[in-house]
Fold this sequence. Notes:
Order of helices and strands: EHEEHEHEHEHEEHEHEHEHHEHEHHHH
Number of strands: 13
Number of helices: 15
Structural class: alpha/beta
CATH class of the largest domain: Alpha Beta
Helix content: 40-55%
Amino acid sequence: xxxxxxxxxxxxxxxxxxxxxxxxxxxxxxxxxxxxxxxxxxxxxxxxxxxxxxxxxxxxxxxxxxxxxxxxxxxxxxxxxxxxxxxxxxxxxxxxxxxxxxxxxxxxxxxxxxxxxxxxxxxxxxxxxxxxxxxxxxxxxxxxxxxxxxxxxxxxxxxxxxxxxxxxxxxxxxxxxxxxxxxxxxxxxxxxxxxxxxxxxxxxxxxxxxxxxxxxxxxxxxxxxxxxxxxxxxxxxxxxxxxxxxxxxxxxxxxxxxxxxxxxxxxxxxxxxxxxxxxxxxxxxxxxxxxxxxxxxxxxxxxxxxxxxxxxxxxxxxxxxxxxxxxxxxxxxxxxxxxxxxxxxxxxxxxxxxxxxxxxxxxxxxxxxxxxxxxxxxxxx
Length: 381
């Protein structure tokens, strides 16, 4: 039996590890997969691994100067055309901005759909006509489609409340694939390398971290892989300036974007501690509830890295109490310095934490397990 699934995503599919994971799992199970998307600013170098059953088709936002009406019409028409001609068994809608196009497809073709909401749209941004359309389609499709997937429990509760959904809804954490849990390969003896990957801004890599790390006279270094987004261009240079002003000009090693995840995690495994900091307050529901939704801590754990996280209750309960992490106040240089010093002074305990992290990914926190219920729906519906 030939199975076909069409992903509709108004963004770059390579930007979202869960899309890479889910499409790879389905392709390995014999599904033919087409990923429709657009290019994203800052993430141009990111690439999905090639697979004989996966095709990626993206439109360029850069040529159009960002999202505007004409480009979206082309995107929606293209998705509708693929549905009519290719006739997939399922449409996998994987971001809110794709919802108006998906509503049209549903209206005209009655296609079966899964809606996977990686990030909830900001209801306060509904002033534009397009965002009002997005929010309206979210309510309609959120009630009607065969299955919805949300990456975090509190977000799931809010989604059910806003949409009025009573049909099946799954919480699937954004964990790595099972085969990505390879453990740690660090060769450092007398220094501590702090690892970070992803979008680079002051909330994720605060300047206080650089100041704290500079106090160790070269024994602590930061290794950063990732990209600056439209709102944070030049931030890496700012961090390097902070390091230089604090007497540590060689503190930061910036690798840029690593195109493929397998290479990214291999490099991560040569560090000692993974960084996964969040701001302590935010009005954005996505920022308030990131445990499970953020792939960064799980990626670091798969690479055998214990974590440095923010001392928020949800993060402490999930990562610190089981001894996968230590926590700090990301706005307090002294708090960060104390945790870095503990990791530096306790190498054996640090390595044991890293082994426990990789074991947890193998045993439970992997996408093969998280996505299993979605597969059941796709293949048995």
